Amino acid sequence: MMATNKDVEILHKIQVEAFMPLLQKYNDTQTNPAKETIEKLAERIAETRSDYYVIHFHKEIVGGIRVVPLSDNRTRISPIYIGLIYQGKGIAQEVFKQIEQMYSATVEWELDTIKQEKGNCYLYEKLGYRKAGKEVVINDKMTLISYLKKLN
């Protein structure tokens, strides 16, 4: 379901919760979504160049995903997050499946994740994403790595 202004508070709360452990671990204060203001999240939800969805599990809001259509039938995911108590339940896998069906014209998907977070890398690789070779060092503890998934 598309996110609206009425979802901003709960989505911001979940986003901060989901990304706070990574912020504490890597101290990536300039890039971590836990540092994003509620106003910035509201702007992202309202913007017309991307689609922001609420993730539900058993009728409860448990996360969010932003889908950014690009040129040449490419689409970017940034960010996706699930509340801590709902992680590891297969929700993200199901969300990716649904999003890929919704954006069926997409031939190439892209996203970034933290190279040092092996669980995230494993999830994306399990979903068919491959390392794209682009890496950005954020600090001495953390590197962002790009992933691509090409569809026929």
UniProtKB/TrEMBL annotation:
Pfam families: Acetyltransf_10 (PF13673). InterPro entries: Acyl_CoA_acyltransferase, GNAT_dom. It comes from the Bacteria. Coiled coil: none annotated. This is GNAT family N-acetyltransferase. Residues 9-152 form the N-acetyltransferase domain. Signal peptide: none annotated.
